Amino acid sequence: MNFATIFALGTALTVLFAANPALADDDDDDSALISVSATGSATSTPDIARLNLSVQREAKTARSALDANNKAMTEILKSLRESGIEERDLQTSNFNIQPRYQHFKSSSGPRKPPKLVGYIVTNSLMVRVRDLKKLGAILDKSVSLGVNSGGGIAFSTEHPAPVIEQARTNAMVNAIGKAKTLTEAAGVKLGRIVEISETNRQPPRPRAMARMESAMASDAAVPIASGENSYSVTINVKWELDQ
Questions:
Q1: Number of C-beta neighbours around residue 95 at 10 A
Q2: CA–CA separation, 161 vs 181, rounded Å?
Q3: Are 235 and 199 in contact (CB under 8 A)?
Q4: Which helix (H) or strand (E) holds 43?
Q5: Distance of CA 1 to CAs 4, 6, 7, 205, Å?
Q6: What angle do CA 24, 28, 30 make, to 5 degrees?
Q7: How crowded is residue 177: how many other Cβ atoms within 10 Å of its Cβ?
Q8: Which residues of the chain are in CATH 3.30.110.170 domains?
Q9: What's the pLDDT score for residue 149?
Q10: What CATH homologous superfamily does 48-156 map to?
Q11: CATH dotted code for 30-45+159-207+229-243
C-alpha cells in the first residue's frame, strides 16, 4: 500500500467519525435521565418535655434582689428533685443582674438624669421532664414556689432515629411513585437508579406554652396536651430511562 492510498484511507475515516460522533467515543454516556424530589413524614408520641422556668426578683439593692431570688430558686430545685427530676435534667440556662432606673420627663429646661431605683435579678432553669404525667403538677408547683417568668415548652422524642428512618422510607416510596407516574405518562420505563441524596430533614417544631400568669390564677394542675411530633425527610433520586 503506497503513501497516497494510506492518506486517502485516513481521510475517509476522519470524515466517517466526524459524521458519527458516537463511533468516535463509545464511552460517552448519552443516557436519558429523570430526577425526582419527594418528601416523606412519620409521627411519634413525645416522651420528653423541655421547660424554661425563670425566677425574677426586684429590690433596692442587688444583694437583696439576689437573696430573694436565691431563696425562691432553692425551693424550686428542691421541689423538682422531690418530683423525680434527675440532676442531669436540671441546668441553669441564664443568670442576669440588671439595674432599674427611673426616667424623668422634662417639658422645659435640661432633662434630669435617670435615677437608680433598684435591681432586678433573673435566674432561669432548663428542665427536662421524662414523665409527662407529672408535667402539669410540676408547672403548678413551680409557679407556687416563685416562678414568675419563662419561655416555652417543647415536646420531643428522646430517641427519634427509628421515626426518622421511617420518614426516609416513606420519602423513597413517594419518589418511586412520582417517577412511575411521570414515566408512564411519557411512555417510557424506569431504568437503574444512578443517584440518591438527602437534601432536608425537619425536626419537630417546639410548641408554645401558655404564659405563666394563666397558671398563677388557679390551684389546679396546669392542663397539658402533648399531641404528637412529625418528622420530615426530603430526598432526590435520579434514574436512567429505559427507552
A1: 13
A2: 30
A3: yes
A4: strand 33-44
A5: 8, 7, 10, 81
A6: 120
A7: 12
A8: 30-45+159-207+229-243
A9: 86
A10: Protein of unknown function (DUF541), domain 2 (3.30.70.2970)
A11: 3.30.110.170
Contacts of 198 (CB under 8 A, 6+ apart): 168, 233, 234, 235, 236
pTM given for the model:
0.67
Q: What pLDDT does residue 103 have? A: 86
More confident residue, 18 or 35: 35
User: What cell was used for 171?
Assistant: 420519602
Q: Which residues pair with 118 in a beta bridge?
A: 100
Which three cell numbers, joined as nine digits, stand for 57?
426578683
Q: Is-contact 239 28, C-beta < 8 A?
A: no
pLDDT digits (tens, 9 = 90+) for 104-149: 887 777 778 889 999 999 999 999 999 999 999 999 999 999 999 8
Distance CA(236)–CA(83), nearest Å, equals: 47
**pLDDT tens figures, 141-168:** 999 999 998 768 899 999 999 999 999 9
Please check whether residue 49 is in contact with residue 226, taking contact to mean a CB–CB distance below 8 angstroms: yes
Question: What's the start-to-end Cα distance of the chain, in Å?
Answer: 45
CB under 8 Å to 109, separation ≥6 — which residues?
none
User: pLDDT grade, residue 14 (50/70/90)?
Assistant: very low
Residues of the chain with CATH 3.30.70.2970: 48-156
What are the φ and ψ backbone dihedral angles of 23, each rounded to 5 degrees?
-75, -25
